[in-house]
Amino acid sequence: MITAAAQIALRRRRERNGEAKPSISMWLFPYLSYAAIACMAAVLIAMAFTPGQQQDFNFKLHYTGRGGDCLFNRAASAATAYGCLGRLIPPA
Predict the structure, then answer these.
(1) Are residue 1 and residue 45 in the same domain, yes or no?
(2) Which end of the chain has fewer surrounding CB within 10 Å, N or C?
(3) 57 and 78 in one domain?
(4) pTM of structure
């Protein structure tokens, strides 16, 4: 999802700045990117409500959130980041 959103944002910025078109451009831009984001969101929503997938969904949501907290917190020191990343790895 992040890749599709970044592709939309970067291409729009490129067009706004008047830069040359990419040598290989995506078909049906931006509609296909939005469709890809919608389909991935639908899969995540379906995982949240499917009994056999709820544990996987919760695991991914929990650990992705922890990683985001640590990796995107610019004020965190190196020791704090190391402590956060240590929590991402489940104990053996």
Answers:
(1) yes
(2) C
(3) yes
(4) 0.62
